[in-house]
């Protein structure tokens, strides 16, 4: 199967992408529930996402099949490190539908890394919140373990 990965306007394509976002969120809820962490219902702060994209601080990548069907996406925030001012990026989401997780995630991350490198980003921080197995993929791609994400439940 052929795929195309490119940056798109997240606000313009939200109606088309909403079901994919909901699928991702449901998968993340399920994994977190198994760890004893409750996530509330899907209720994104769309105006914040859209404003960040318009301001140039949020990149929206979409993976589509050759037929144009979206099967994955990534939202990446750009910012300056609060401690040293370096230009850095942090993923909000990297997601590929289960039936397409056969190498396309690697291609998506390579596309993201290429774009971030072109923009002069110094570091790209990722968190495997939906599927912890993604850390193995990222390590094979050169990512380094820099800490552990933990959650305290009130």
Describe the structure.
The protein has 154 residues and is α+β, with helices and mostly antiparallel strands. The protein is 34% helix and 24% strand. It is built from four helices and five strands; from the N terminus they run βααβββαβα. Strands 1-2-3-4-5 form a five-stranded mixed β-sheet, sandwiched between helices. Strand 2 (58-65) and strand 3 (70-80) form a beta hairpin.
Summarize the structure.
The protein is of the alpha+beta class and 154 residues long. It has helices at 14-34, 46-54, 104-118, 134-140; strands spanning 3-7, 58-65, 70-80, 87-96, 123-125. A hairpin with a 4-residue loop joins strand 2 and strand 3.
The topology string of helices and strands comes to EHHEEEHEH
Derived from helix and strand composition plus strand pairing, the structural class reads alpha+beta
Continuous helix count: 4
Shape: globular
Percent range for helical residues?
25-40%
Terminal-residue CA separation = 45 Å
Estimated share of beta-strand residues:
15-25%
Which value, in Å, is the CA radius of gyration? 15 Å
Overall pLDDT, averaged?
Answer: 93
Total E-strand runs:
5
Low-pLDDT runs: none
Q: Largest sheet at a glance? A: 5 strands, mixed
How are the strands ordered across the major sheet?
A: 1-2-3-4-5
């Amino acid at each position: 199967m052929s795929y195309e990965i490119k940056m798109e306007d997240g606000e313009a394509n939200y109606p088309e992408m909403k079901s994919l976002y909901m699928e991702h969120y449901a998968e993340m809820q399920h994994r977190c529930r198994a760890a004893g962490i409750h996530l509330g219902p899907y209720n994104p702060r769309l105006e914040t996402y859209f404003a960040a994209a318009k301001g140039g601080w949020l990149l929206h990548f979409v993976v589509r099949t050759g037929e144009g069907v979206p099967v994955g996406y990534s939202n990446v925030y750009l910012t300056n490190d609060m401690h040293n001012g370096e230009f850095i990026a942090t993923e909000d989401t990297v997601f590929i539908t289960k039936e397409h997780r056969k190498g396309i995630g690697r291609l998506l991350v390579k596309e993201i890394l290429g774009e971030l490198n072109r923009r002069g980003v110094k570091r790209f921080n990722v968190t495997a919140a939906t599927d912890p197995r993604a850390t193995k993929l990222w390590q094979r791609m050169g990512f380094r373990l820099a800490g552990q994400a933990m959650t305290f439940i009130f």
